[in-house]
Amino acid sequence: MRDGAAYDEIADWYEAEFLPQRALAEDELEVARTLRLLLGPGDGPCLEIGCGTGVYAEQVRALGRSPIGVDLSAGMLRYARDRLPTVWADAGRLPVSDGTLPAVVAVMVHTDMPGYAAVLREAARVLAPGGVFVHVGVHPCFCGGFADRTDRNAVLIRPGYRDSNWTKESWTDRGIRDKVGATHWPLSELLQMFLDAGLTFERFAEGGSPTPIVLAARARRSG
Is residue 105 part of a domain? Predict the structure, then answer.
């Protein structure tokens, strides 16, 4: 996970200004629909990797599961603690025993984690037999420093999609990426990380229109 200091610096802005603005766009992202489709109803703990301020806890709880959050930003966790139980930890070294969790999710955070391959290995490690991992993230084909989404009906894709990199370049100055940056992987690299971590895909979903904003996947530990 990227150093939590960058998110510590924007935590108050994120809670007071960005979240109210983001709430208006949640239907556009279709995160709630995607979690219902891919995570689905269940019980027991569900670990949210990179929980931030815990804004998705209610959506996990609505499925009958008990959300627990882990994040590296103490500033973000100050707000998250009012929404779900939390642990301050690096997602690449989860303080969780092997094979113990029925569900793990990572929601709109993989671009914050340059070591996402290690995070996926950790997710696979802590999953119980039959457990499910759900990834919900920005769509690598249509979101990134190379994509200008000023006109949602005509997304402009510049050269750069094929480059794996970190950047603060963003089409808007009202979001997060121009403040803390983002890591991008082409679709093929991102999907390969799951396979290398020992995760087997079961289902995919996309969210947002007319051009997808979100790409999501459900996977289980192989073997």
Answer: yes
